[in-house]
Amino acid sequence: MDNSGPQVFTGNANPALAEEIATYVGVPLGEATVTSFPNGETFVKINENIRGRDIFIVQPSAPPTNQNLMELLIMIDAARRASASRITAVMPFYGYARQDRKDQPRVPITAKLVANLLVASGAHRVLTMDLHAQQIQGFFDIPVDHLYAAPILYRYLKTLELENLIVVSPDVGGMKMASAYSQLLHTSLAIVAKQRTSPTSVESQYLVGDVAGKDVLMVDDLTETAGTLTAAARLLKQNGAKRILAAVSHCLLTDMAIQRLKNSDIDELITTNSTVMRPIPGFKLTVLSVASLLGEAIKRIHGGESVSSLFEVNGKGKQG
Predict the structure, then answer these.
(1) Boundaries of domain holding 25
(2) Which helix (H) or strand (E) holds 237?
(3) What whole-number distance in Å separates Cα of residue 125 and Cα of residue 142?
């Protein structure tokens, strides 16, 4: 057995993705026991020798967020105490990313707290994808490799041969991402301005741009209740949009979101397997695998090579 290569382990957050990544890297998925005691406490045991090895633990902090985050922290601690030479937390989805600033009095900056916890548990490096806010990288005093799902989404979108396409940001905060996609796809750009009436409901207000008779691609990094997407789609349809697609890096769909999508004007939702996706009966959901993207990053990190080219889309600049 080659003891110089990387070892890939996983908790219970997304074992199917971890298996795909290990296959791409060309190693068997590491053997570890990750279970819960009857009182809810997490128990971890790594069932093979990792002394002096380069360890990659694949674990998105998706719902149940706290459970999956604790599994990751405990696995990192177990690997550190088993004398792994380097431990990389591979987080295809970084939970708590939206709590990245104090936007009102007496609230925490939980994204920074999570960064502190990862470092305190023994992580030497973090590999993640499509952070909700890029400045989260600055919360770490260890290296962070931040990848984009754009190359994966772009390749799929090109196969659709969409004509007369326009890229739309479903809210003001997504303008930078939408602008990057519009440049990649050589399309014009529009924006839906919204007003959020509660954490689960959105009232879209007005549209800036012309979507009449066009295929529309809405892009976003994250959706949970699908309120922003479905409200924006309704407004786009009212303004003459022909076909409406949504490309979202991370989908953490609640029951409310599934009902909204089934009753929405969205013709297809395109996302990744950064989190575990369940099918939506009667609705076109396309799930693209990011295993090759993360697997290639793992191979390059292990080999001390640059990951910069993974940011490129079809030979062009990175998605921003």
Answers:
(1) 6-148+291-311
(2) helix 227-238
(3) 6
